[in-house]
């Protein structure tokens, strides 16, 4: 069978189920919604495009839910979640449940339907969408609730009860999952017009009555357990915030609800203080902890756990794709059982499986040995159940020994270890890597050499990716066109993009990235130590998914990756052409990373590979090199106490990539966000010559952080217009923005560029927008 050994235990369970088996204490925090082949994505997009009906979308969704519930039931999972499905986002679902629809969407009460729901998520012809932001330190994004004293809360979506009933009618008794009331408030922001300092937590009195109604409805529908996700408990919380949990859960009167309540935490350890608060909550029967990322949780539990309560032990990693080390997990579980009683330990996932890939069974092209090391969501369910059975004394020896063989093969496989790389990376630690000359002097030398005007214009890298272009890449990958034809097609595309930029009179050009489908996968395909999946998609936001490469071994660069295309592009123009690379931290943060060595070690290895590429580009005559670090901030640990260490090795890794170039080689970096007030010193410490950032949706004041306390001498290009929208900004509008920036930043360091890459835009939008951008820059140059 394609899924190999993972099929085995399911069958065993089915065989044995004729004799009564003690229900195993197994639990899944949540499950991916997109489907094994992104079925939900395609159904959503077709519905949004008006190509299919609401009923068709609902049918796809119901089929996905049914198959997930059945899969878990067949695997023997005892506590199966419901309401972890969402048409867009679980936080938005909670906003709908509470009727907290911002007034601008013109909702008039009643049950919230697709119209209002998707308008909040995506905007509509007249109203923009609600803000979206990263879900903790994942690449998932949630829709930020907008709250204030004016919001009239009402019970406006019965989705959680409907999903519970739907599962029940299919014969599956589930644990309905809700975003807990305190996390919901802590993750929200004051609505427009509401003071920034408004105490959002005070709204708890208004939302608790709705939560109470929901709990009562679930009880009436037959639920016996209910799960509240309170992941904010892993953050650095003030005692006031912690008290909000005590207060809210007391007010909910869960002890009177007749239900068993589980509170889930995930993504990191809870602090000792949060642990005390959590385990003292009234009316709660079980507590869930992330035992993969949370390294201190075990000690806290062993130091004292409320008697008679259940521990949901998250030992199976929901954030990664590695097969669990079952023997080691079982040891952990048994020792926990020794402390709190074996019948009180429920085997679980570290967090929702939303953050991992869906099903390994669809990876038909993956190397067999590597595949034996992996477990996606569908396989993790089987692992959870196998551990639960083993803990209950019914260990499936065959399954465990197959797992042990795979673990051993991963430890000893020569494809994992590359001694030379290990040595080189180890030598980097503790040392410093910096360009010898300071940035202001470098920048001056660079401007002189390339004769750049003041307020130089550039773009971030990619140009529109047309359907034809995607087709060429696809055909080449499938061996349907020859390498020669492929090179010709890409060359033509590059030449078109170069000509366009010359016509537009842009100063520093890009080749447009037509050969890349994704800024991380492109490098993953070429580096050793990486594997690429066919269907390893993970939801990023709404219908958007990403497909992170898998880093399974020591990373090295067998040969140059971008020099061919970049030097070809440079040869087409006399203007400087940016070499375009993805930085080590971003490659790391947007991949599934090995768990058998610390993240920084893997990052240093990638940095060395990128360093070689940078130096090869320089040798080939490329004098401007952009090293994107779009995801540097995303990897910032949730807890303050761990942030300095991360920033230290992340910034060090970036500097390693370019510490060896000449003063006159200009290093750019790009970041897809602008709120780095808290990490500004690290950004400066990256020591790039020019940094372009996303800024068009925030105000210029943010830029003043670059001047606060530190004299920042490097070039800075705050995105001058929003590439996420099809809108074409006028010359006046752009000039106005540049002027506002000039009020904060020196003219000799300001660059003029869009927000981010132009990949998702159409030429009809890009041409006039860039033309206006250049015109605005020229207008201001004349005035300076
Ligand atoms: N160079 C990349 C591009 O332009 C950067 C993308 C990103 O920052 N997400 O597409
Ligand atoms: Zn970007």
Automatic annotation (TrEMBL):
Pathway: Amino-acid biosynthesis; L-methionine biosynthesis via de novo pathway; L-methionine from L-homocysteine (MetE route): step 1/1
Cofactors required: Zn(2+)
Record's keyword terms, sorted: Amino-acid biosynthesis, Metal-binding, Methionine biosynthesis, Methyltransferase, Transferase, Zinc
Residue stretches making up the Cobalamin-independent methionine synthase MetE C-terminal/archaeal domain: 455-778
Pfam families: Meth_synt_1, Meth_synt_2
Gene Ontology MF: a single term: methionine synthase activity
EC number: 2.1.1.14
Enzyme class: transferase
Catalytic activity: 5-methyltetrahydropteroyltri-L-glutamate + L-homocysteine = tetrahydropteroyltri-L-glutamate + L-methionine
Domain Cobalamin-independent methionine synthase MetE N-terminal, residue spans: 26-337
UniProt GO BP: methylation
Alphabetical list of InterPro entries matching this protein: Cbl-indep_Met_Synth_N, Cobalamin-indep_Met_synthase, Met_Synth_C/arc, UROD/MetE-like_sf
Role: Catalyzes the transfer of a methyl group from 5-methyltetrahydrofolate to homocysteine resulting in methionine formation.
Family, as annotated: Belongs to the vitamin-B12 independent methionine synthase family.
Cited NCBIfam families: met_syn_B12ind, PRK05222.1
Protein name: 5-methyltetrahydropteroyltriglutamate--homocysteine S-methyltransferase
Gene behind this protein: LOC116211212
